[in-house]
Amino acid sequence: MSDTSSPRKLSKLHLALAMLVPVYPLITTILYIVLPLTEQWTIWQRTAVIAPVMVFSIVFVVSPFVQKRFANFILRAA
Fold first, then answer.
1. What are the pLDDT digits (tens) for 11-27?
2. Helix (H, G, I), strand (E, B) or coil at 59
3. CA-CA distances (angstroms) from residue 58 to 5, 24, 28?
4. Interior CA angle at 74 toward 57 and 5, to 5°?
5. Which of helix, strand or coil describes residue 60?
6. Would you call 39 exposed, middle or buried from its count of C-beta atoms within 10 A (0-12, 13-18, 19+)?
7. Which residue ranges does UniProt annotate as crossing the membrane (predicted)?
8. Among 4, 12, 53, 58, which is least packed, fewest CB within 10 Å?
9. What is the mean pLDDT of the chain?
10. C-beta of residue 62 within 8 angstroms of C-beta of residue 30
11. Is 6 helix (H, G, I), strand (E, B) or coil?
């Protein structure tokens, strides 16, 4: 049996747009939670707390969600 579907290519622009929608509120929420708890901390200390939470959330939650739900938007005909 042959595969009749056309090959599809990743559109980095579409992926960036699709990722921006959930990542912006995620980062904003993390900041609203962490900043009041770390008022006396320096910026590098705050970043040391925020960055891992943000990265793991994007890699394990947001990215799989976006890739699954917006595959037709992200992948274009080659």
1. 999 999 999 999 999 99
2. helix
3. 30, 11, 13
4. 130
5. helix
6. exposed
7. 12-35, 47-66
8. 4
9. 91
10. no
11. coil
> What digits encode the pLDDT tens for the residues 27-46?
999 999 999 999 999 999 99
- Where are the alpha helices (H) located in 1-78, listed in sequence order? 12-37, 43-57, 63-69, 71-74
**34 contacts 46 by C-beta, under 8 angstroms:** yes
Q: Which helix (H) or strand (E) holds 70?
A: none
Instruction: Find where tokens 């708890």 sit.
Output: 37
Q: How many CB atoms lie within 10 A of CB 53?
A: 14
Give the pTM. Answer: 0.77
| Residue pointed to by tokens 């990722």 | 19
Spatial contact of 73 and 18, defined as CB atoms under 8 Å apart: yes
What's the token pair of residue 51? 């960055």
For residue 23, what pLDDT is reported? Answer: 95
